[in-house]
Amino acid sequence: MCGIVGYIGSRPVYPLLVEGLKRLEYRGYDSAGVAICDTTARIYKCSGKIRDLEASVSGKDTQGTAGIGHTRWATHGKPNDVNAHPHVSGNGHFILVHNGIIENYSVLKAKLQDRGYTFKSETDTEVLVNLIEYIYLKGKTEAEVAVRLALTKVAGTYGIVVICNDEPGQLIAARRSSPLVIGIGAGEYFIASDTSPLAGQVQSVIYMNDDDVAIIKRNELVLKTLATDEPRIKLHNLNIDTGEFDKGGYDHYMLKEIFEQPVSITNTFRGRLLPDKNEIRLGGLFHVMPRLQEAGRIIIVACGTSWHAGLIGEYLIEDLARIPVEVEYASEFRYRNPVVGPGDVVIAISQSGETADTLAAVRLAREAGALVLGICNVTGSSLSRETDAGVYTHAGFEIGVASTKAFTAQVTVLIMTALLLGYKKGSLTKEQYASFIGELDSIPASIEKILADNEFYLNLAKEFKDFPSFIFLGRGYCFPVALEGALKLKEISYIHAEGYPAAEMKHGPIALMDENMPVVVLALKDKSYDKIISNLQEIKARKARIIAIVNEGDTLVPDIADRVISIPAGSVIFSALLAVIPMQLIAYHISVMRGCDVDQPRNLAKSVTVE
Ligand code: G6P
């Protein structure tokens, strides 16, 4: 949460900062600001989005070739102009942007207040910038020393970029838990929360590690750690198609990403799923496969939509490979003293690879001696660097805050992993394995078929957009899909929605059912089909409005449900990949019709780098 961008070089900095912030806006969009600081610093900031910042800056002096920018997801203090970053120290020596939380800010603030500092904002960040200045002035030291000393006094998380007005021509960056990546050009450097602002600008990047401090000048980059002056520089190539940042003719990124799924899923299994050879090859897991096969237990940790993918992973791995699986919210796992050790394999799933709770769960599991694997979309992310091995989902940049193509890519990786494990462990025959491989290969074409009915979903959305509450029900593989359907609707349309296992409805949700309650029921042809038909009857008897998702050719459900959505028939293990698409489309269209901000829903952010 919160996006940081910085630049120092010879190009006009303001357009680079604004363009960079737009690409990082998914990380938070409560307020935005920039500081342009070649000689005298100019700071512009306001509540609202980057376009509000641009409007407020219009006509002002933006000349300069060095500066920093920030887009905020509020933690401490309301999203107003004063709390917006950059923050300036009391005597004006330092300017700072920050992503993270300074947990001991109130203690530090009180100490600084005792020493005469006053505070304009309610933020923890203003405490940090003043602490740096206090140490700088008291110790009569260099800016870099003051920053490093101040950071040793801080508890919490940070990615920061600091400018010292007395030492122009230099950016100082540091990270602990909040990501920062340095882009290296000819006589110029970028710094950003992720690689998106660097795409099309530089070819080489350095991912900063925890406790790294970077001193960045126009022609010099020095990387140290908080504790030592030892440089640790590892260059990575950056290869991102800047076309990924366009909406590609769609009204919203989310719609573009929904429609990209036939291609993104193909990209996920490209080179890994080999139908001609009846093989699955997951290079990232090659070396750990023996340990994975022998695992006494697999624990999947994740948050949000990735946690829903994890639940599907549990069903898949237990069903196909017969290895016990537990799925945990990373935030619960990390704090509940879990029993985990060398016999376990922990799989962390994260689109961004930067979710704070998921990373903390990974660290805990590694310390306990478990083999830790990652399923991650963003290359070079913290997750990809902190796990023992893993699989990239290759879904491409996902910009809409509500996850769509990243989810189906995660499920695709989990299907391939479960199939490979099942085959290697002998719980799947060669014939079953080959048949599933062929079917997975045909999933993108089935998704194309569902997407071709977009008009139908538009009309369905028109009919149901004004209901205040929805229930989503499913059994087996379709239960996590029901959870995901409810999450999609609530996060982008602000309609209350609950997902439930269909049989559990009798233990609570049925009390809510009447003619004002739409119930979305996944009624696919699997082993619990007869049971779900009974559930549909029970719902109908309470006069609730049923929207049923069925397999093509279903003849029973249309007689019971008010509206029927047909998706291609197939093996139950692929249910999630197909059944989630109508739910994404319904949520999208309802959100648009209700005038909500589809791509940047209120209070949410895509990358949750705070606890
Ligand atoms: C936020 C996003 C969700 C995402 C979740 C986990 O809540 O809005 O879309 O599923 O974080 O993020 P991750 O990057 O770890 O998958």
Describe it.
It is a single chain. The protein has 611 residues and is an alpha/beta fold. It folds into three domains: 3-243, Aminohydrolase, N-terminal nucleophile (Ntn) domain (Glutamine Phosphoribosylpyrophosphate, subunit 1, domain 1), CATH 3.60.20.10; 249-449, Rossmann fold, CATH 3.40.50; 453-599, 3-Layer(aba) Sandwich (Rossmann fold). The protein contains 18 helices and 26 strands. The strands form five sheets. The protein has an eight-stranded antiparallel β-sheet, with helices on one face. Strands 5-6-7-8-12-13 form a six-stranded antiparallel β-sheet, covered by helices on one side. The protein is globular. The model has no long low-confidence stretch (mean pLDDT 94).
The percentage of residues in β strands lies in: 15-25%
Mean pLDDT: 94
Q: Give a short account of the largest sheet.
A: 8 strands, antiparallel
Shape: globular
Return the CATH class of the largest domain. Alpha Beta
Radius of gyration, taken over Cα atoms and rounded to an integer in Å: 25 Å
Spatial order of the strands forming the largest sheet:
3-2-4-1-10-9-11-14
Query: Which residues form runs of ≥5 with pLDDT under 50?
Result: none
Number of helices: 18
CATH-scheme architecture of the largest domain: 4-Layer Sandwich
Structural class: alpha/beta
Terminus-to-terminus distance: 10 Å
The strand count comes to 26
| Helicity, as a percent range | 25-40%
Q: Count structural domains.
A: 3
Can you list the ligands bound to this structure? 6-O-phosphono-alpha-D-glucopyranose
CATH topology of the largest domain: Glutamine Phosphoribosylpyrophosphate, subunit 1, domain 1
